[in-house]
Write a structure and sequence with these properties.
17 helices; 493 residues; Rossmann fold; alpha/beta; 6-stranded mixed beta sheet; globular; 25% strand; 2 domains; single chain
Length: 493
Amino acid sequence: MRGIVKQFPGVRALDGVDLDVRAGEVHCLLGQNGAGKSTLIKILAGAHQPDEGSITFDGREVRPASPTAAIRLGISTIYQELDLVDGLSVADNVFLGHEPARLGFVSRHEANRATRELLTRLGHGEIRPTTEVGRLSPAAKQVVSMARALSHDTKLIVMDEPSAALAHDEVRNLFRIIRELTAQGVAVVYISHRLEEIREIGNRVTVLKDGRTVAVSLSAQDTPTTQIVTLMTGRNVEYVFPPRPSREPGEEVLRVEGLRVAGRVEDVSFSVRAGEIVGLAGLVGSGRSEIIEAVYGARPFSGRVLMEGRPVPAGGGTTGAVRRGMGLAPEERKAQALLLGESVARNITLASLDRYSRLGWMDRRRENEDARDMVRTLDIRPADPDRPVGTLSGGNQQKAVLARWLVDHRRLLLLDEPTRGVDVGARAELYAVVRRLADQGIGVLLVSSEVPEVLGLADRVLVIRRGRLIKDSDARDLREHDILDMIMEGSPV
């Protein structure tokens, strides 16, 4: 790709970007949210057309007019927000648009057989081809999306944050698959905000900043992390986690006793105090998200949940949780948190509309003023409260979700994977926001698949394995390998 330019109304998303990928290599594409990575890969995938520049693929100049045209060339893309159809089966999704047929009829048997072979190759033969995709976990959906890419005669696979929804052991399996593909001559463009992954799986690195190429063909193994971060952000980011306060937490905000969620969580008890950040560590599927959802009223449970000493009824719904002072930033922000077609301002004030209601009328001026304050406070970019939130980068969308709970007073904030798909610079900003909320006396219950994040941000850590709480400890008394030893299946407690 040479001199790629893409202009949207009011925004020059790409301003002469270059990208050079070789057969059989893993080429890492890095940059902060909003740097232009998503726009660049959508051009490569045929979803957008460049205003200027050229693309040469497999020795000839091409210009994919559509995603289908790109796939026919041998270019497959796995997006961070998976484009699967929840109502269809796994096999139907894998072969969507190129269904195996005999005598003009779709062969379900052949589709199921080929899907089973692909899933086995990916190390997930337990996923049934006939299962409805909507019933799968985020990690399993990621595997299905990879199987769909491999169902084509692919020469280049673009992977956008492929490890974001995967547990530690599943990332190892992902890297095994990538190495097998590159050994067969397939090229991989790998996008990730986890810089430690780049060094492990990558060959070369290209860095984007503000729609421009600021570095090309860097060695993934030899380039210092500090140099990559400086190229991405334009500054050194040395201290990611804000310092822990020396003060003791306040009174108990949340108490959970004997929590059970059918088939997912068994006899979990813990508490969160005012001004305390409590981190939940465990593998994907260990029950972490189910604990958060039960506390928030989004999932039926047995046992007791008390908010400031008052019982929260099982199955009482999320409205009651919000009224009692809880706020939730869920795991899937686009599907579970945001109204993508609505403005940033409307998404920020969505949970506090009664704050702006007077005698049945909305005080739009006050609502917009509060939204603008939140945009400035969290540095949401572009700084336009009227812009549709769906047009923002992933990191800025996450800031909008957090801003929703800063508008009105909260006593407890539940964060499920708050930095998924968020770059290193924006992460530091989000960590500072979370610590600032805790310093204001808000209790925080945090779920993260990244153990360093749990240890660096939380005051206390709860380790979850197979739906059970196996460790409750001060974060300063734990090390990363201690937690990994505990959460890996079959390891001693």
